[in-house]
Structure of Succinylglutamate desuccinylase/aspartoacylase family protein:
Amino acid sequence: MPRAPFDLAGIRVMPGSRKQIDVPVARLYTHAPLHIPVEVVHGRRQGPVMLVCGGIHGDEINSVEIVRRLMRSKQIQGLHGTLVAVPIVNVFGFMQHSRYLPDRRDLNRCFPGSETGSLGARVAALFREQIVDHATHIIDLHTGAIHRTNLPQIRAQLSPGSVTERMANAFGAPVILNAELREGSLRHYAQIRGIPVLTYEAGEALRFDEWAITPGVRGVLRVMRRLGMLAGEHRRRPPPAAELANGSSWARAPIDGILRPKVRLGARVARGDVLGKVADPFGNAEAAVRSMADGIVIGMSRLPLANEGEALFHIARFDAIEEAESAIETFHSSLEPLPDPLY
Ligand SMILES: [Zn+2]
């Protein structure tokens, strides 16, 4: 039986074709219309409807490049199912190099949204109704916030044997965090609707980090392959091992001052280790930032200026710390050499 066409925002995509759709979202102050750009690849064969979206936070541009490379990949030819790619959800923030919407709201706290609410609520409702509700599976792409960088990691709510767990393991990021759901996030909404959803967090806002982009593209393709959306499964190697963190916490600045980090992203640290030092500009008053746990540095500040209490180093804890360390080593060696980012 031939596959039915796929309808999105009033546009029809026939089986075996792809189409770019500009979903009208709102108007700028100037009255110029603004759209969320979407590309749909509607395969000839039955399969899942995978939504891959980036830029819910408008300054997280690694995700935009992950989507671009995914859509240029030859591997999605002959797709089973449908791929819905949205490189930039928060188009307002993207134009301003900002995480937020023009009203300072965080779009990832606005779901499920409302058609009669504020701008954030309306954008969330529109994205949900026109795009998210079509999906059977979701991968939501993020980076660290501004001046913060993340080791590539998957965040998901994992229950043993669930589709979400299988997707998380297939992705091949070195670390998986069984992360609490935040009210109002896309992940929270999808989880309540019963749509398996992963969040990929890697790199820094407003930067292209090749070591975050390359594994992001590979990870999305691996998940699609695991779900039977891509051909050639038998020829592919299994994804590199990922370690599940059993918790995480931030080491904070003990005083106001200037930070000199002593550790790198991915470093294994022990409880009490010095992660960095914060000092006044002359170095007279100086205090060490110490790790409160044995673990791995999965996120850190990139700005050397800190106020007392500011979160500087994100430390994940593991039951199997040796395995976590070796998963990170394997991950780093899988990226050697990194491809030319301009290809
Ligand atoms: Zn984000």
The chain has a mean pLDDT of 94. The domain at 6-243 is CATH 3.40.630.10 (Aminopeptidase).
